[in-house]
Design goal:
Strand content: 5-15%
Strand order of the largest sheet: 1-2-4-3
Structural class: alpha+beta
Distance between the termini: 19 Å
Shape: globular
Number of helices: 17
Low-confidence stretches: 1-5
């Protein structure tokens, strides 16, 4: 089905927007639309909308969505067990972890494991201990070689490494914002956290304003692909954040324009006006419109995957800090020699020839 490769039809896009922003469904939910819903991880939202609004849907459609929701709930139960397992082990190293995105958003917006699915656990580390990320990776996945991650951490690179804990993927992040340019003031971001309970374990999570900042940034970084991100932000906005505090946080990180742009995008979809959108500069809006054309948006998971292949370069639009953008781009284009040796040990010859060989190797990997 070509839905995986293009923006949804106007009819499906209207239904997706209605689901994401909580508006009544005006058309039947069909079997074909379920495939689009799945691409955007809105199965639980759709099922609740059908039940509450008595929207038109066949028995087969309801059953398919119910089975999807049960699968998400089972996945969440596994995540709770994984959190209960890994958090005490990391704390035993003298390192404080935090969890963001899926489980954190659920805690901030109220119980809703059926409506807020998550595919993995996003784990972050207190800034003072980030150089020890290799120890955490070795602890959680001792059979793997994480020497490169330790090297990148020492050089200040932003990255994530996925390990498996009790059958659950855990993304261990070098930086809580997880975009190309490192956080400008990670200690301030870490101070904007509080505790939540996951199963029997208390664990750190972002507060409301930081959770919104992260969600806005990821919506833009992923090329405005996933309607679940819109749904998350609408629910977070409904919790009445301190807009001045959010603006100050974005400004402190050099992210005011991308945050304002993402907020304005949601306002346009939802027909609302948020205080943050007023900070958007027209010139920045035009640049982002060119970077992410509207005919390439809202492709669901396929769109996220495509964005991931180019985000190292397109996300240069994300930060207002030009010097940091230049440094980040240089590191990505011209890998330090020791990093190149680690990533491409089969390379021979001079540095330029090995770098070209590595890029060709990357291109072949992406084709698979």
């Amino acid at each position: 089905m070509q839905l995986h490769a293009r923006t949804p039809s106007s009819e499906h896009l209207d239904l997706l927007v209605s689901l994401a922003i909580g508006q009544p469904l005006t058309k039947p939910v069909t079997a074909e639309f379920i495939e689009v819903i799945r691409l955007h991880r809105l199965e639980g939202v759709a099922l609740l909308a059908i039940e509450k609004q008595r929207a038109t849907a066949t028995h087969d459609v309801r059953s398919a969505l119910a089975m999807d929701v049960l699968a998400w709930q089972a996945s969440r139960a596994r995540m709770v067990l994984a959190v209960e397992h890994l958090v005490p082990k990391i704390r035993a190293l003298g390192i404080e972890p935090a969890i963001a995105k899926g489980l954190a958003i659920e805690d901030l917006t109220g119980p809703g494991s059926a409506t807020r699915p998550a595919v993995d656990i996003d784990l972050f580390i207190e800034p003072a201990q980030v150089q020890r990320i290799g120890e955490i990776l070795d602890l959680l996945e001792p059979e793997a070689d994480h020497a490169l991650m330790g090297l990148l951490a020492r050089q200040g690179w932003v990255f994530e490494e996925t390990v498996e804990v009790l059958g659950v993927d855990v993304d261990v992040h070098r930086d809580i914002l997880n975009c190309l340019v490192p956080s400008k003031d990670p200690d301030r971001l870490w101070s904007e956290t509080s505790d939540m309970r996951v199963g029997s374990t208390l664990v750190t999570r972002p507060n409301l304003e930081l959770a919104i900042l992260i969600s806005l940034l990821h919506l833009a970084r992923d090329g405005f692909s996933l309607m679940l991100g819109v749904h998350d932000l609408i629910r977070l906005f409904d919790r009445e954040p301190e807009w001045a505090k959010l603006r100050a946080l974005l400004t402190s990180q050099g992210l005011l324009q991308v945050g304002s742009y993402a907020c304005a995008t949601i306002d346009q979809l939802a027909g609302r006006s948020s205080p943050l959108s007023a900070s958007l500069k027209p010139s920045y809006a035009k640049a982002m419109d060119r970077a992410w054309p509207h005919n390439r948006r809202w492709r669901g998971q396929r769109g996220v995957a495509n964005a991931a292949r180019t985000q190292n370069y397109v996300s240069l639009f994300i930060t207002d800090r030009r010097l940091e953008r230049a440094k980040a781009l240089k590191n990505r284009l011209l890998l330090p020699n020791e990093v190149l040796n680690f990533r491409y040990p089969q390379g021979t010859g001079s540095y330029p020839s090995r770098l070209v060989g590595w890029r060709m190797h990357q291109r072949e990997q992406l084709k698979r």
